[in-house]
Structure formats: C-alpha cells, structure tokens
Amino acid sequence: MTYQKVPETPTDDVGPLECHTFEEAPLAASTRVGLVVSRFNEPVTRRLLAAAVATLRGASIAADAIDVAWVPGSFELPLAADRLAATGRYAAVICLGAIIKGETTHDRHLATAVATGIEQAARQWGIPITFGVLTCETPEQATARAGGLQGNKGVEAAEATLAMLRLLPHLVPATAGLASTGPAA
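The chain above was modelled as a monomer; its predicted structure follows.
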C-alpha cells in the first residue's frame, strides 16, 4: 500500500470557508528550538539537519537559539526529546532520523516505537515535538527524501514545527476550565 500527499492545487473549487480560522501568531524573539538527530544513517540525517536548521533560521530563529543533540539511533530520539522538553528551555523539539528496511521486520517495530514515544512526549510536555523520521524501504528512498528528488523532509519537519508554534498560542490547554465546570455527569 502506498500513501501519497494530495496535490497542493486541487482541481475543483471548494468555495469560501464560512468559519473562523486562527491567524498565525508571531514567533517570540526568544523562541528556542531543540533538535535531536540520529547518528545511524548519518549521511542522510546530517542533510535533514542542515535543511531543518536553514528553515528555522529563515524564520528568524537565532543560531544561538537552536541546539542539537545527537543520539546513537532513531530508537533513542523519544527519550532525548523528552529530556529536552523537560528542561522548559525549548518551545519545540524536532526529531530527525532515518529508519531503512532491512531483511526483517525490525524497521516496523522500531518506527512504531519511535513514533509512539515522540507523540507521548509531545502530549506530556505540551509542546510541538515533530516527527522528522524517514521510514524508507531502501537507502535510495532515504537519499531522495533528504535533499534529492523527493525534497527534504528536514524542511517539512521544521515547517510543521513553525506552524504549530504559531498555532498553539490560540488554543486553550485541554485542562483549562476543568476545575470550573467539574466532571461530566
């Protein structure tokens, strides 16, 4: 089964949206972002990192407000991201890795554990912790997604992070107001 992204320009006109849309909030000048990067498949992850940092810098995040933590492999990404988030120093954390299928199903188990761990850390700390982990069948596919024919997923991870940083100030935390309304009857 292959999953594909819908083309950017749909062929049919959906018309105007009659609803409230949150406008993007500006990033605070003090915004800090942590990146956790896997050393396994480093030729690929280094390219993802370079693209992510360039995207953050292009959004006016200062170089000294971007910290990088290298970990041995993708499995270690969630723990390091969790620890960075726990410091309270970062508005967001970006996880970058490359899981490439081998002869067994190890890659599937690894990808599931990594995705689950990253998602759990994001919910626990209430900050964007972005999944910039390639899950590819071949090294060629990974290279194509790290600056090759398929673009650079490091850019996409950084752009998703920036979008979430601009959206979250508009959203009320899930626990806000629970004390005043009490539990559902």
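The beta strands are 33-38, 66-71, 92-100, 129-136, 146-148, 151-152.
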